Amino acid sequence: MKSLIRWGAALSLVGGILFSPLSIMGNTRVLALTNEQVVERLNTVPVFTFLDSERNFLVTRPTQGGENALPVVYMFVSQESAQAALNDLKQSNPEQANGFQVTPVPLSLAYQMARRDENQENPVQVAFIAAQAQVNAARTLLQQSGQNAEQFQGVPLFIPRSTEQEGVYLTVRRDEQEVIPIYFSQEDAQAMIEQVSRSQPELANKVGIQVISLEGLIQNLQNSDNEALNQIYLFPSQETRNFIRTLQQQAQPGQQPAQGQPNRQQSQNRQPRPNPAPQNNQQPNPQAAPRQ
After folding, report:
1. Quick one: pLDDT at residue 116?
2. 207 pLDDT higher than 80
3. Which of 5-19, 117-131, 152-166 has the lowest mean pLDDT?
4. DSSP secondary structure string for all residues of the chain
5. Domains along the chain?
């Protein structure tokens, strides 16, 4: 029987490192991936933020850091978490939250916003908010592997990998290419391992899950000269896939996208833009800040 999976080339990935809020200062070395290639790697995953009808971001001004602290745009991995945070803000500060709704945008847009060299006019920090259930799952895996789980921060990613060869990962076929799958949910990574174990029992005890951070991966994509990074493919969680599928089903040909879905045709000419929160009585209540 032809093998359903293969081992990928050795790949050094940053794990367990916090780079949140994401702040990219520009290229400091020759890249294996161009900016366009980094965008392509990140473009497969939607994240959720707050936009108004004019496609302005809801921007929070930090309560710490002084006048030089950059305003923050929150990007949620989970649509449900984003909606819960917006509902809290509507209760505590309805004036600030007025007109905003949870909207999916490509992860690549968050990356481009964080590139200071491309955002000199109105720089912002991008802060990712992880799904708490996945943070808990990541810390459990780290603890089981003897690592300090409490040091892990950021958005966890899960990669099926060899337990016998350091830096070697499972690959799968996608669109006639071998890719290294990276999952936003531990359940999806585990499901892949179980599938492998059923089809190739000899690999059942040779595959585990490595936990890394999204923030660390983005930094690695920008700074590493390892061409194997071209092989990675990010898979959204089942929750996100279901939400996007629902939006696609609701959208009818010739009509505007359903509520909450970005207008792709319009965004080609008009990207969402930051909308700094006022400095006066519209300051967000720290207790109502987006939560995990």
Report:
1. 61
2. yes
3. 5-19
4. ---S-EEPPP-----S----SB-B----S--SS-HHHHHHHHTT-EEEEEE-TT-EEEEEPPSSS-TTPPPEEEEES-HHHHHHHHHHHHHH-HHHHTT-EEEEEEHHHHHHHHBGGG--SS--EEEEE--HHHHHHHHHHHHHTTS-GGG--S-EEEEEEESSSTT-BEEEEETTEEEEEEESSHHHHHHHHHHHHHH-GGGTTSEEEEEEEHHHHHHHHHH---GGGGGEEEE--HHHHHHHHHHHHHPPTTSPPPTT---HHHHTTS--EEEEPPSSTTPPPGGGS---
5. 6-16+132-241 (3.40.1350.100)
pTM over 0.90: no
Q: Which has more confidence, 151 or 13? A: 151
pLDDT at 34: 82
